[in-house]
Amino acid sequence: MFHNILVATDGSAHGQRALTEAIELAQSYRAQITIVTSVPDPSAWLITGGAYGGVDQNALLEDTEREYRKILEDAVAAVPKDVSVTSRLMHGRPGEGIVEEREEGRHDLVVMGSRGRGNVRSLLLGSVSHYVLNQTPAAVLIVHAEDESPATD
User: Fold this and answer.
1) Biggest distance spanned by C-alpha atoms of the chain
2) Is the dihedral of CA 26, 86, 77, 108 positive or negative?
3) 50: left (phi over 0), alpha (psi -120 to 50) or beta
4) Of 35, 67, 127, 146, whose CB is crowded by the most CB atoms within 10 A?
5) pLDDT value for 57
6) Which distant-in-sequence residues (6+ apart) come within 8 Å of 89 by Cβ?
7) Which residues of 2-31 are buried (b: 16+ CB within 10 A; e: fewer)?
8) What pLDDT score does 19 carry?
9) What residue ranges do the domains of the chain occupy?
10) Over the chain (153 residues), what is each successive 10-residue block's mean pLDDT?
């Protein structure tokens, strides 16, 4: 039985599926949910070529933080009123932040998507879900987004 569920989302299809699963589990176990998302460090964009010369990094960071704050607000708004929910906007490497939040909040389950936004960045920087799975003693549920593409014969 789970009492304190941590769900990580980034607005991706996998993150949305993680939120859906966490809500269903919270309702089944009458558990509380903490939703987290992490604003990426701008240096990660430089590594992957996401930022170009002449870009105001402060403006880029502010825009990105606003985008991730919106993702978090939308996730909280999607939680039914019968589920206790809190949220946290983190900065930096998501895997490390998730593991830290899991420890501080004493969450007994972490729910997250198998893949987030930006597959190329994931290849270069490592898999967040793989990191969390290997760094936390809590149960970790890794979900996949439903395949939205029609099957072809």
Assistant:
1) 52
2) negative
3) alpha
4) 35
5) 72
6) 36, 37, 38, 39, 65, 68, 69, 72
7) bebbbbbbbbbbbbbbbbebbbebbeeeeb
8) 97
9) 4-93+105-118+136-143
10) 95 93 98 95 56 67 91 97 97 93 97 70 63 94 73 49
Residues with Cβ < 8 Å from 3, sequence gap 6 or more?
A: 29, 31, 32, 108
Q: Give the pTM.
A: 0.83
What amino acid is encoded at 123 in this protein?
L
**4-93+105-118+136-143: CATH number:** 3.40.50.620
Q: To which residue do tokens 């490592």 refer? A: 126
C-beta neighbour count of 139 within 10 angstroms: 12
Residue with tokens 């704050």: 69
CA atoms 45, 147, 136, 81: torsion sign: positive
